[in-house]
Specification:
alpha/beta, 21 helices, single chain, about 35% helix, TIM Barrel, six-stranded parallel β-sheet, nine-stranded mixed β-sheet
Length: about 600
């Protein structure tokens, strides 16, 4: 009996199965959304044939840390072209404790929206620790009552029953940072019966890195939940080398059976960061936070209908989303906090009427605020205050790693943009401290080399460290991305950088190791047996790339550039990238714990 043509056959490629083994020559036959055959298919027909000669065929990459929830719900970004052009076919959403859906909504509503609209990659959704705490307690900095704990657990269970793959935390952000270790263990236990993960931005990635890693291990052991330390790194020059110790601590825990992992991105830059510390600029710590508290107190006199009206006037789009009015209408403290934060932390763009108006009110922070600027200038010219300011800026430069680790961005003078602070000081004929102050007053910020290459490579070589971009979901060509230059670069080029720079040029890791870190390793962490591998019966998420031409193009000066070298991508059996160009097919799906 003749076999019907395959939907897709990928011929004559070097197949890397994702399990860490070396490539072998072969063909792959796809029928529907599954890989049906791997081997010699020279005698079989196909509706679509991909010539992979001279190229590697790999499972589609799984990005273990994205902010895809900020992009996938919007049609313009739903295709995830920046991911497809790197061979990424699945993204993990809802990191850092925020969760993948708004606090007034639920996982079912987001899943339905994504599937009805269509998405270019698969998406796995996490519920957030901070998300459920906001829903129940707002931003209150206190221990929860027993009923509040149960309310948070119930929301967590509903999310897991709705298909969430785990819970995320951001222990440097409010309100996650208000939760102690035992409180996290108690909450995280709720995902254990569902096979979910605990995905954590740990409490300290700098001086307290080792203690924060130990806390993650304690949470993993105490809750019985597979744990991932996300964007694993040691920040600031004074901590370089500490990541080796942290890596070894994790390895020791794993040897005694603790199910703890990490993910990382292959970059050393961070930012943008201020050249003058905010407290130095404002003259005191906590100024903005106190303003937010005062505004929130003033708002207590407004009735709910007025609060909702004010919120709506401040909200982009000027209309409530489904369920938003109902949720906020029963959460007055949280609503007041959201409005107060929106006003107190507002930094409108220079040149708009709102900017000029808010400058006079004092709600715009930074060098564009004439009152703040005048106060700073007066303090700078005072002999005692000026000395104190310069000393604080000098310490700030040292804390960031020194003048040679700081690059200038956002200044109108092209001769200064992307120069190190030391180089800029030479051009201006000033000290590094005076240059930092001068350029800050011109609106400049800093990109900083936060991590060491040695640390990045050491962690990358471990078999328990997956790949996660922590990338933005940028509108192509628009500014530096929604979250800043480094996150835009990571979005466009994390996987291409790992393949090109670390597996091909530097030989830090083998190509098979690089592929496993982005395929079968994250799949196994998430409990997916039929994703992240090339084998018969697996889901047909496949990428084909040319080892000679694979390369990242995005950089801090020009982040909006797609990576090159990935020529074909198949998502759930459908061709999503053809000869390097997106086909427009939105074949992704929302993926739960079963894969």
């Amino acid at each position: 009996m003749s076999i019907p043509p395959y939907d897709v056959v990928i011929r004559d490629g070097q197949v890397i199965d994702g399990l860490g083994t070396e490539p072998v020559s072969g063909d792959i036959g796809v029928r529907g959304d599954r890989i049906e055959a791997v081997g010699d298919l020279s005698g079989y027909d196909a509706k679509c044939t991909i010539d992979a000669s001279g190229q590697y065929v790999i499972p589609g990459f799984i990005d273990m840390h994205t902010h895809a929830e900020r992009g996938l719900p919007y049609p313009e970004l739903a295709a995830s072209v920046h991911h497809l052009t790197q061979g990424v076919t699945t993204v993990l959403c809802g990191a850092d404790g925020y969760g993948a859906w708004p606090i007034y909504s639920d996982i079912g509503a987001l899943s339905e929206k994504l599937m009805a609209q269509g998405i270019g990659t698969n998406a796995a959704l996490m519920v957030g620790l901070g998300q459920v705490r906001r829903q129940v307690m707002g931003l209150a900095d206190r221990l929860p009552t027993g009923s509040e704990v149960e309310a948070m657990k119930e929301r967590l269970r509903l999310a897991m029953e709705g298909g969430a793959v785990g819970i995320s935390s951001g222990l440097v952000f409010a309100p996650d940072r208000y939760v102690d270790t035992e409180g996290i263990i108690d909450i995280a236990r709720e995902v254990a019966p569902y096979g979910g993960i605990y995905h954590t931005h740990i409490r300290d990635e700098a001086d307290g890195l080792l203690e924060a890693v130990q806390e993650a291990i304690d949470i993993c052991e105490g809750s019985g939940v597979t744990t991932v330390i996300t964007h694993f790194k040691a920040v600031y020059r004074r901590n370089w080398g500490k990541l080796r110790e942290a890596t070894d601590v994790i390895a020791q825990a794993r040897r005694r059976g603790v199910k703890i992992y990490a993910d990382q991105f292959p970059f050393v830059e961070g930012g943008p960061m201020p050249l003058i510390p905010p407290d130095t600029w404002l003259g005191a710590s906590g100024v903005v936070e106190e303003r937010v508290k005062r505004i929130s107190s003033i708002l207590e006199s407004l009735p709910m209908d007025k609060l909702l009206h004010l919120y709506l006037e401040m909200k982009t789009g000027g209309q409530f989303d489904v369920g938003e009015r109902e949720f906020l209408g029963t959460n007055a403290p949280l609503l007041r906090q959201m409005i107060a934060g929106g006003i107190g932390y507002s930094v409108p763009p220079v040149g708009t009427a709102l900017h000029h108006f808010s400058s006079w009110l004092g709600t715009h922070q930074g060098p564009g605020n004439p009152d703040e600027r005048a106060r700073f200038a007066a303090r700078l010219s005072d002999s005692d205050d000026g000395m104190r300011i310069r000393a604080e800026v000098e310490r700030h430069i040292a804390n960031l790693g020194g003048h040679d680790k700081i690059s200038i961005t956002g200044v109108s003078d092209s001769n200064l943009n992307m120069k190190t602070l030391g180089q800029a000081a030479e051009i201006l004929g000033q000290t590094e401290v005076e240059t930092a102050i001068t350029l800050a007053l011109r609106g400049a910020e800093a990109f900083v080399i936060l991590h060491s290459e040695e640390d990045v490579e050491y962690a990358m070589q471990q078999d328990f460290v997956a790949t996660g971009s922590d990338g933005d979901y940028p509108y192509f060509g628009e500014g530096k991305g929604k979250l800043g230059g480094p996150q835009a670069v990571r979005a466009y080029s994390t996987f291409a950088t790992k393949l090109r720079k670390y597996a091909t040029e530097r030989n830090t890791i083998t190509l098979a190791h690089a592929v496993r870190a982005g395929t079968s390793l994250p799949a196994s962490i998430l409990g997916w047996e039929d994703r992240g591998v090339i084998r018969e019966g697996a889901v047909a998420d496949i990428a084909v790339f040319d080892p000679k031409s694979i390369r990242p193009r995005s950089n801090l000066s020009d982040p909006h550039q797609y990576s090159e070298g990935v020529n074909f991508v198949v998502v759930n059996g459908k061709l999503a990238l053809d000869n390097g160009q997106p086909t427009g097919v939105l074949a992704g799906s929302v993926v739960g714990r079963s894969g």
